[in-house]
């Protein structure tokens, strides 16, 4: 009786400590963000092309709402690349809920972190339970299995990496609307892990309607319901509700079929890349320097590369690990989308703690972190040299964006390779001998 | 009167004052106005007007008498109601020079009204621009919908229109080419449009070598429909061709000018086809200050009282013999203080670097009462402006525009069009500013000299002045300078053009398209390779100490060599 009570007490005190920790982190993050936001650095950060792409710039949202207030259709011009629903949402939320643009961006960022906290908590628990029967696995890999410690640490690490990784932080401070899109993306992850098909499909429909690329995530979502939640019915419902929500959103955006001018500005811009303002992606310089008669060919191939090229093979390979699949696809979208910004990278990086068990198998951590650090420092410097001092040229900045993309590619392939290796070891053990000789693994 | 009414009053004209011709025949008049400007310049304005009473049957505009057939055909083919073109080099300095007879923007400027029966205005506009390009040897072929706007207020028809009830700016097109360089090749085709060419009459003074030495030179072609009789039961076509020149005394070497100094030679008789051939010299500056001597003696002195301004003009009828008008200033010269005209404007760029900038237009109201104006800005698509950053301040206070018309631009398709109606406070400087971003273009969209920069055209400030101070413009009912004498009206329309601006857009490296394509594709391939391996291949254990290829080769080589030595 006493032990039970004390256990309960211990548990409640434990959860109290966690609540304290989380709220302390949240308050600290909010404070830090607010301090930078009200300082003179906010404008400088918001003006950086790494943060404000044509698709994520808050200035363009302001222009759009201003034009709407003057009864001018902003989609007649091409400054605005947000959907009418998104514009309406920002305006309403800002006007009636937050009153202050700083508060709004901080709130959405904190919301993202909390949602991901709960999502990864659920995921970590489930993941640990899957590997609970240690006896089933070979001896030498048992210490790499997710344990209680993993379950406790992962959500907290994820929370911290959303709140304090510099990429998300700068994106939030610089009013990048991708920060708000990421809130819905984390809602999608939460709904997926929580086996809530309504939330996940709604959030995914919202994300797809604003930035198009997430539409491919419907496949991992369905896989998740089939393989993890073991429910074909829910998978079907997810698909149906996703299509319904997407139709409803498009209906709203087009003013019930009356005005499709936003399609050209939003999806047309995402797909055909007419605005060649530099960003951290691969598209801008490539299509600046492209010969006109090859433009279409390369637009098709780059967009296919960013969307469906890796979708099917990865889905087949990682069908039993849809969470890994989702994160991998998020990474690839972030690298190969037409207008990526730092918030995209910040968001996917915050999933890395869920792969804690793989870190010992990763080989390129050092190289990746050095490249990321260097490019993050060099990008603004070379930008300044090119645009303001006219002592460098476009190639310098292009070089940095290439290195940045390479770092991310190394990261995602490294994680995926480590995961395949880990799964192999779980099945076959580490010490495999052929004819009594030591072996090493290779892909054949 | 509300502002809106004023605007319409301001810009649609008094159609009742249409010019009236007495005979059914075509008429042609040639005039030259010489006006010493404040300080160191002389203004010479050539005005040629052809009036053509079109027969109603003559629908193709092909059988003309004095009227240039080339222009007539253009009008007939493209359904043009009105056409206004100017080709200008240099900038008219409103602050010191007052107002010109005809305002013109630096570079090329063209605006046209099409008849309401036109079905495809954009197509006709494009065709018209191409024809004009051939007619005047100018780059009008670069005019297309991507630099064309249809302003609501600034450019109303100047002549008679039979559809004033539903006057609709969908039939109006306005475009400027600020980069256009105007030179001899534009003057020669213009001279060919005159009935006497440059063989006889005042046009013979248009000597290219001397004209393009000037500080400002502007040629214009203005075509409109006017009433052919007082009852206005039939319309006539009126073509005004003009050449405006501003000579600088410093370039001339002396302030004692004469035809010979200005144009290289004197005048040898008039154009025999002209009904009016006059030369006027503005004497107002002579009367007040520096009494110059005119030679030969003028035939007549005309005193014109117009909108509170009294000015004297010396009139010369062109004799059949040689004429060389000249002036001689006294040795002791008095300097005066310049009194700027009621309204003038400047435009400039703000910001540094190639990322963000601003366009600022400053409008000076020197009049003692408030003035209503309309500002038109036709901003090219490569200068994306943010309307929410538009601020109008005057004397530290924010002004609200009375009317704001805006149409957002689209890359490679449509310019940004802003038209603002404002009430300028009395004696004030009003600043209109707007922010823009520098855009990044495709490498083939940059002009050959990419670092020369891209031009932003001038803003047009239209106002209806209550006084004719410093004003030499023609009244709406007249095509001749003679008609502007004693022409007091209720207001005087000025359309001030501001300076052109040049921005240097950030450039890519033009020399390495192949490298960029290769490098970017390599990065994509870097992702493709490992992902392809992970998804299509299986992990298999392999013996660790299995020989590598190099080792195998080495071993074989060693064995081979060993064998060889053995056999030897």
UniProtKB/TrEMBL annotation, chain A:
Pathway: Glycolipid biosynthesis; glycosylphosphatidylinositol-anchor biosynthesis
This protein's UniProt keywords: Endoplasmic reticulum, GPI-anchor biosynthesis, Membrane, Transmembrane, Transmembrane helix
Endoplasmic reticulum listed as a keyword: yes
UniProt GO BP: GPI anchor biosynthetic process
GO cellular component: endoplasmic reticulum membrane
Domain of life: Eukaryota
Topology in membrane: Multi-pass membrane protein
Main subcellular localisation: endoplasmic reticulum
Compartments, as annotated in UniProt: Endoplasmic reticulum membrane
Assigned protein family: Belongs to the PIGU family.
Name of the protein in its database record: Phosphatidylinositol glycan anchor biosynthesis class U protein
From TrEMBL, chain B:
Coiled-coil features, chain-numbered ranges: none
Positions of transmembrane segments: 512-534
Origin superkingdom: Eukaryota
Signal peptide residue numbers: 1-22
Keywords: Membrane, Signal, Transmembrane, Transmembrane helix
Protein name: GPI transamidase component PIG-T
């Amino acid at each position: 009786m006493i032990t039970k009570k004390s256990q309960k007490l211990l548990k409640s005190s434990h959860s109290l400590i966690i609540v304290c920790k989380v709220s302390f982190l949240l308050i600290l993050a909010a404070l830090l963000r607010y301090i930078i936001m009200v300082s003179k650095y906010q404008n400088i950060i918001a003006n950086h092309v790494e943060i404000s792409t044509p698709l994520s710039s808050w200035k363009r949202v302001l222009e759009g709402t201003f034009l709407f207030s003057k009864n001018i259709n902003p989609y007649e011009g091409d400054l605005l690349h947000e959907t009418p629903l998104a514009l309406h949402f920002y305006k309403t939320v800002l006007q009636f809920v937050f009153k202050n643009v700083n508060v709004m961006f901080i709130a959405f960022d904190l919301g993202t972190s909390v949602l991901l906290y709960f999502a990864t908590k659920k995921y970590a628990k489930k993941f640990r339970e899957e590997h609970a029967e240690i006896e089933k696995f070979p001896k030498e890999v048992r210490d790499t299995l997710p344990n209680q410690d993993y379950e406790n640490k992962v959500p907290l690490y994820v929370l911290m990496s959303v709140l304090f990784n510099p990429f998300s932080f700068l994106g939030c401070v610089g009013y990048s609307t991708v920060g708000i899109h990421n809130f819905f993306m984390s809602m999608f992850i939460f709904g997926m892990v929580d086996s809530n098909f309504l939330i996940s499909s709604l959030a995914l429909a919202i994300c797809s309607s604003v930035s198009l690329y997430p539409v491919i995530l419907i496949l991992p979502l369905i896989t998740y319901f089939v393989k993890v939640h073991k429910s074909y019915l829910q998978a079907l419902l997810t698909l149906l509700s996703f299509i319904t929500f997407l139709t409803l959103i498009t209906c709203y955006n087009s003013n019930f079929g009356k005005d499709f001018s936003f399609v050209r500005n939003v999806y047309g811009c995402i797909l055909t890349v007419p605005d060649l303002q530099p960003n951290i992606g691969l598209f801008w310089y490539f299509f600046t320097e492209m010969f006109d008669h090859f433009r279409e060919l390369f637009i098709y191939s780059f967009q296919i590369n960013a969307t469906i090229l890796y979708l099917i093979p990865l889905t087949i390979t990682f069908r039993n690990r849809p969470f890994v699949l989702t994160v991998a696809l998020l990474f690839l979208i972030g690298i190969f989308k037409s207008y990526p910004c730092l918030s995209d990278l910040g968001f996917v990086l915050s999933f890395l703690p869920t792969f804690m068990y793989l870190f010992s198998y990763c080989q390129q951590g050092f190289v990746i972190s050095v490249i990321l650090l260097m490019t993050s420092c060099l990008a603004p410097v070379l930008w300044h040299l090119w645009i303001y001092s006219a002592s460098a040229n476009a190639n310098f900045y292009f070089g940095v964006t290439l290195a940045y993309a390479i770092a991310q590619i190394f990261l995602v392939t490294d994680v995926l390779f480590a995961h395949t290796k880990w799964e192999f070891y779980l099945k076959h053990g580490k010490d495999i001998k052929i004819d009594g000789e030591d072996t090493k693994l290779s892909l054949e | 009167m509300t502002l809106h009414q004023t605007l319409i009053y301001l810009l649609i004209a008094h159609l009742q004052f249409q010019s009236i011709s007495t005979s059914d025949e075509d008429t042609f008049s040639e005039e030259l106005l010489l006006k010493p400007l404040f300080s160191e310049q002389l203004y010479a304005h050539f005005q040629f007007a052809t009036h053509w009473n079109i027969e109603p049957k003559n629908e193709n505009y092909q059988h003309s008498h004095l009227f240039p057939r080339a222009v007539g055909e253009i009008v007939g083919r493209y359904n043009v109601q009105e056409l206004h073109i100017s080709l200008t080099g240099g900038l008219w300095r409103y602050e010191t020079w007052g107002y010109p007879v005809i305002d013109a923007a630096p570079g090329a400027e063209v605006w046209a009204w099409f008849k309401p029966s036109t079905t495809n205005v954009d197509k006709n506009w494009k065709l018209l621009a191409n024809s004009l390009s051939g007619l005047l040897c100018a780059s009008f072929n670069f005019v297309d919908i991507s630099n064309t706007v249809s302003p609501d207020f600034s450019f109303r028809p100047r002549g008679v229109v039979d559809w004033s009830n539903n006057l609709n700016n969908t039939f109006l097109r306005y475009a400027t080419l600020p980069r256009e360089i105007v030179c001899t090749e534009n003057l020669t085709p213009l001279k060919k449009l005159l009935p006497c060419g440059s063989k006889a009459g005042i046009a013979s003074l248009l000597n290219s070598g001397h004209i393009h030495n000037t500080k400002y030179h502007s040629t214009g072609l203005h075509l409109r429909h006017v009433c052919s009789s007082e009852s206005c039961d039939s319309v006539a076509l009126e073509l005004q061709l003009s050449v405006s020149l501003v000579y600088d005394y410093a370039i001339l070497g002396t302030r004692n000018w004469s035809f010979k100094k200005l144009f290289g030679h004197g005048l040898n008789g008039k154009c025999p086809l002209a009904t009016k051939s006059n030369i006027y010299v503005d004497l107002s500056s002579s009367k007040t200050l520096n009494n110059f001597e005119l030679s030969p003696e003028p035939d007549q002195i005309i005193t014109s009282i117009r909108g509170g301004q009294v000015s004297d003009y010396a009139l010369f009828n062109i004799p059949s013999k040689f004429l060389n008008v000249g002036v001689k200033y006294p040795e002791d010269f008095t300097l005066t203080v310049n009194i700027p005209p009621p309204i003038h404007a400047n435009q400039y760029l703000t910001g540094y670097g190639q990322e963000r900038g601003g366009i600022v237009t400053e409008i000076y109201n020197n009049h003692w009462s408030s003035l209503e104006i309309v500002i038109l800005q036709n901003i090219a698509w490569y200068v994306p402006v943010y309307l929410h950053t538009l601020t109008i301040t005057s004397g530290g206070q924010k002004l609200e525009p009375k009317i704001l018309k805006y149409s957002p631009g689209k890359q490679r398709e449509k310019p940004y069009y802003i038209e603002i109606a404002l009430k300028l406070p009395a004696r004030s400087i009003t600043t209109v500013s707007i922010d823009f971003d520098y855009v990044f273009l495709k490498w083939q969209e940059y002009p050959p000299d990419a670092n020369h920069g891209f031009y932003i055209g001038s803003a047009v400030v239209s106002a209806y002045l209550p006084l004719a101070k410093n004003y030499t413009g023609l009244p709406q009912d007249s095509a001749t300078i003679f008609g502007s004498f004693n022409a007091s009206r209720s207001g005087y329309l000025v359309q001030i053009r501001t300076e052109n601006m040049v921005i240097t857009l950030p450039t890519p490296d033009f020399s390495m398209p192949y490298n960029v394509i290769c490098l970017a594709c390599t990065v994509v391939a870097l992702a493709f390779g490992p992902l392809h391996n992970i998804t299509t291949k299986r992990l298999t254990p392999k013996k660790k100490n299995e020989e590598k290829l190099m080792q195998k080769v080495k071993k074989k080589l060693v064995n081979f060599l060993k064998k060889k030595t053995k056999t030897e």
